[in-house]
Design a protein that fits this description.
Shape: globular
Strand order of the largest sheet: 1-2-3
Largest sheet: 3 strands, parallel
Oligomer: single chain
Helix content: 25-40%
Number of helices: 3
Strand content: 15-25%
Distance between the termini: 20 Å
Radius of gyration: 12 Å
Length: 71
């Protein structure tokens, strides 16, 4: 996706609810926030941990996203 937009992957943040999506984001060199709101638990992401876990998009703030981008 970053390539199609003409940007480097490192400043991108992916918001994902599936472990496979987190794996893809991390493999692409992007930071990743995992949503646990679809019945997922942190344990589901054990093999491919996200940089941040939240229950809902409402839990995200600009400050949190900024911290994730610094990972």
């Amino acid at each position: 996706a970053a390539r199609r937009l003409g940007v480097e992957p490192s400043p991108c943040v992916v918001i994902e609810y599936a472990p496979a999506g987190v794996q893809a984001a991390k493999a692409a060199g992007m930071a990743c926030v995992a949503l646990l709101s679809r019945g997922r638990r942190r344990e589901d992401f054990a093999k491919f941990p996200a940089d941040l876990f939240v229950q809902s998009l409402r839990d995200l703030s600009p400050e949190m996203l900024s911290q994730v981008m610094d990972v």
